[in-house]
Amino acid sequence: MTVMKTKYLDKRGWRRLLRSDYREKIIHYEDEKILVGLLDIHKVRSPLTVSILDEKVKVCDNRYSWLQILPEKRKYSITVMYDARGKVLQYYFDINIKHILELGNARRKDIYLDVLALPDGRYELVDEKDIARAVRRGHISKKQYDFAYKAANELMGEIDGNFERFISLAEYCKKMMK
């Protein structure tokens, strides 16, 4: 039995958010269809700080924003997290089995593994314990496990090869949301 999380780009039901605005649109970038969502976070219950490469990074607080990029044919989605001044804090890549680019109901099927990247292009693979546990519990198959690692490794190769590509994509998407 496959059990994967369906995650909505508008962050519906995320209890940390007390007040936010969300808007989205479908764009085309380099011949690729992409759904872009922008979450403007006005007020949170409490800030969120994460550890990435042994650094503590606050990624969610009042007046922060999250740009979510859902490319139709990619095996990952990207969330670019900005502070209240618009400075990029982190690029969060979710490995996904499927993307649904439906305006007002955009979502993705998350398969546990994530790659977190700092603005300078350094990155790390995270949630390996979660995916191993999912296989042991029968929530995903060995084939899906292998898919997730293959997709993550391809993504890390892309980051190594040309991280600027992701920076340019995020800048373009953010500009399109203004």
Question: Would you mind describing this structure in some detail?
Answer:
The protein is α+β, with helices and mostly antiparallel strands and 178 residues long. The chain is 25% helix and 47% strand. Strand 4 and strand 5 (55-60) form a beta hairpin. It is globular.
Order of helices and strands: EEEEEEEEEEHH
Main sheet specs: 8 strands, antiparallel
Beta-strand percentage range: over 45%
- Broad shape: globular
What integer value in Å does the Rg equal?
A: 16 Å
Number of strands: 10
| Average pLDDT number | 95
**Uncertain spans:** none
> What structural class do the secondary elements suggest?
alpha+beta
Q: Please tally the helical runs, counting DSSP H or I stretches of 4 or more residues.
A: 2
Oligomeric grouping of the chains: single chain
State the helicity in percent bands. 10-25%
The end-to-end span amounts to: 42 Å
Structural key phrases:
eight-stranded antiparallel sheet, single chain
